# Entry
Amino acid sequence: MYTSRLFLSVCSALALAVLAGAWLNAAEVIKVRALEEVPLFDPETLAGSIGNAPKQVGEMTVGEELLVLACVDRKSDINVHAAYQGKVVAVGEWKAKVQLIRAYGFPWERGATTSCLGFFDSVSSHV
# Structure
């Protein structure tokens, strides 16, 4: 009885350690850098009616960087949302070239996100 209880305790502690390690290593702090002039859109207007263009609310100049807040699934596309002038915007990465600069972070860090894991690797660099 004591052996099975000890075995169960060891397995539980190991599983908890694996889960904690995965949680701590999953977050990233990401910046999006404009390689061309990149339009920024109101995220609420992206999935509008057919034929309606999204509302442009700004533009990134070449070399400008914004903090990525999340990658959001919008119907058949994944959009990069970033902070711009105190607002959340959708980055027009489908209209112009961008680079995502990724750094590992802790989940409690300012700007850390886990929603972009596996997305946009072809335009990413890790620091």
Remarks:
- The longest strand covers residues 65-74.
